[in-house]
Write a structure and sequence with these properties.
The structure is a homodimer.
Chain A lengths: L4 E8 L4 E7 L2 E6 L9 E4 L4 E4 L1 E6 L19 H14 L4 H14 L2 E9 L7 H12 L5 E7 L10 H10 L4 E5 L8 H15 L3 E5 L3 H17 L6 E5 L8 H13 L3 E4 L10 H7 L3 E3 L16 H11 L5 H9 L3 H7 L14 E4 L4 H7 L5 E4 L2 E5 L2 E2 L7
Parallel strand pairs in A: 1-4, 1-5, 6-7, 7-8, 8-9, 9-10, 10-11, 11-12, 12-13
Antiparallel strand pairs in A: 1-2, 2-3, 5-14, 14-15, 15-16, 16-17
Helix pairs in contact in A: 2-3, 4-5, 5-6, 6-7, 9-10
Chain lengths: 401, 401
């Protein structure tokens, strides 16, 4: 049996001063003061603020170039150009999916992230190789990082014959979620793609997470098709729409109606809060009880040079994008990286409460909002009761090659 | 005479490997290898990337709460609400302008900023007190931070009688630039305010920097009035419009015409690249040769909880807002915090060239773009030849109380 870990003198989500005892990967006790026992491993937290483990609800572990030589970006900006560039560069650059996904996971641990939903490319060029690499990383980090894998048809399904069969195989081999992508914009066959996606979901009894970059009314059309199928197949609570730029369009009445339907069907949203695109309003989602999580999306990959895996930084970007200034609003931004993301990932034992999985991040700040606005190096990160990072550095056991 | 400072083994703006010798506050020599002399102070830069000193082209040194207890934000979001909240809170909180501006300057030095244009509130409630506090800070940091002060009528000019006279006094007492603010939206008298602003500029022979938050056609109307006066008074090259949200409006033909006129009159722009507002396109400005600089605006003040004074982070936000992904585009984002800002501030001896003022920042990254996307703690910051910060910490001499 592992020793009890006793965290002394921290502040729970910014307010109450408390001690926390952790045993067997769970929060054993949370109280104003807990007396040490002889065998305890004791950490003096010196008044640091404790957050629940951060969650990256939308990323691509197979895409990152982290730890490789700097890749100069020069590709075009259309979605199709970026897709094609990446598929080609995967051959030219040494983008080993196992190694690279491990690097991102290790980096994420150092930033306090303890759960990740990762889309992983499935295409007829690379087959299941990328999925297999990320699955190996998932197995390696299983003790300290909860990873969901979405079988993601990045290069299209209908326009690349054989992709649906590969996704079917990935879902049999352990992918958790059926992915999809711009059924109009990329596949030019919305009915075809969505029938295939929902067909796989029915067959495997697995949820769906669809990238929907399509803007304006085209996106709204695709979204309605997704909602139609959610309703027809009674898949309430099992569908996530990622990006959903169409929900940032100018026609507020149309957006309001779409959001009402999304809420009624218990569909979730994921956002990266991009500054250069229209986005769903986090406040409008909250008003309706729609769970909306944040994700880092690509981190230093062939699409974008940005990204550092920090979900507190992502919370800041959510806050800035949504013009959240009041402290209560900044906590809404943080919710997209914590409780809302946990709800979407179905992490039922999430949060700083006795009995829950002991995922926790300590930051040396005065207030919850300051954690988001200042984003200092994480003082301590605990995942499932294990210390996985300290002072912004992943502990040696969990570093990547 | 001070000793020569010899920086060995750095990379100039990301490319060429070089040594740099600094003497009497200037770059004395830049060469692939410089032989040490007996009295040299030598810094081994271990291949770090050298950037020219960063410039914050739009901030408010009198507003920050940095170093004070966390102030929970709860105010409304309209411009008028935020103005009124701040004016009141200045009395409730201990917002000493001298102390607080020094804190922000010291923080900025730690991040590699060596020049700042700061707007400072002038109003009939606080008189010249805030200006005087910031002026004291400017004097204290004169050796290592080039600070321009804009006499800024934050609470309005026409709606607060006596403000114009106070601005007149501030300009006589050492304020460098005449400020202005939303002549329609706040002052409800665009002709009145702009005549007063340009009147002060003529009287004192000083440039103008006007906050223009007004959106859409109202902002375009105000902008045209500004450009009319620029032309009539032959003030080409002396006018900056800050924010200019109207230049982010949907009517692209109208925006294009406005930008053409701005270029023809050699007017400059300043942006904070806010994610939640329309903004001028940096690329569209570059195409026309319009200088556009970036600024942090308020840093942890009564308006916003965000901000850390890091101009590399601001460059990232400019990049994200403008959807800059290619390496060359990321350097455009950096230009808004370096060369374009220097041009707007009229810093003629700016940049990593022999004879120029020795302002330089070292970062341990592989590429210029990585400086923006990773934003590591600054390895070394040199201002006018002095080492002012190391490893992200301001040296003790220049720390603030």
């Amino acid at each position: 049996m592992t020793k009890r870990l006793l965290l002394k003198n921290l502040r729970l989500m910014g307010d109450t001063s408390a001690d926390i005892a952790i045993e067997s990967g769970r929060f054993l006790q949370i109280a104003p003061s807990i007396a040490p026992q002889p065998d305890d491993i004791i950490e003096d937290c010196e008044g640091a603020l404790a957050l629940s483990g951060l969650i990256d609800g939308h990323t691509h572990l197979d895409k990152t170039l982290w730890g490789m030589d700097w890749h100069p970006h020069a590709q075009g900006k259309s979605l199709q150009q970026m897709i094609d560039t990446e598929r080609a560069l995967r051959h030219e650059l040494d983008m080993d999916a196992k190694r690279q996904s491990a690097r991102q996971v290790a980096l994420s641990l150092s930033q306090g992230t303890t759960a990740i939903r990762s889309h992983v490319d499935i295409d007829t060029d690379h087959g299941l190789r990328l999925f297999e690499g990320v699955a190996e990383t998932r197995a390696h980090y299983a003790d300290v990082m909860q990873i969901e894998i979405v079988a993601f048809p990045q290069s299209g399904m209908m326009i690349r014959e054989g992709t649906t069969e590969l996704m079917d195989q990935a879902l049999s081999d352990g992918a958790d979620i059926v992915g999809g992508l711009d059924p109009c914009g990329i596949d030019r066959d919305p009915k075809g793609q969505l029938d295939a996606v929902f067909g796989l979901a029915e067959k495997h009894g697995k949820p769906v997470d669809i990238h929907l970059h399509e803007p304006g009314e085209m996106g709204a059309f695709s979204l309605d098709l997704i909602l139609d199928r959610t309703e027809a197949l009674a898949m309430q609570g099992k569908i996530t729409v990622s990006h959903a730029f169409c929900l940032g369009m100018q026609d507020h009445a149309r957006v309001s109606d779409l959001l009402d339907r999304i809420a009624a069907l218990d569909v979730s949203l994921a956002t990266t809060a991009p500054a250069s695109r229209p986005v769903p309003s986090v406040a409008a989602c909250r008003e309706r009880g729609i769970p909306i999580c944040a994700g880092n999306d690509g981190i230093r990959d062939t699409w974008t040079p940005y990204g550092n895996a920090d979900m507190l930084e992502r919370a800041m970007l959510v806050g800035l994008r949504n013009n959240f200034r009041a402290d209560v609003e900044v906590t809404w931004a943080l919710d997209t990286c914590t409780v809302d993301a946990a709800r979407i990932m179905g992490l039922k034992d999430y949060g700083l409460e006795v009995g829950n999985r002991a995922d926790l991040v300590l930051v040396d700040v005065g207030a919850l909002s300051e954690a988001v606005t200042l984003r200092p190096a994480r003082r301590l990160v605990i995942s499932a009761g294990q210390i996985v990072a300290r002072n912004g550095q992943t502990v040696s056991k969990w570093q990547a090659a």
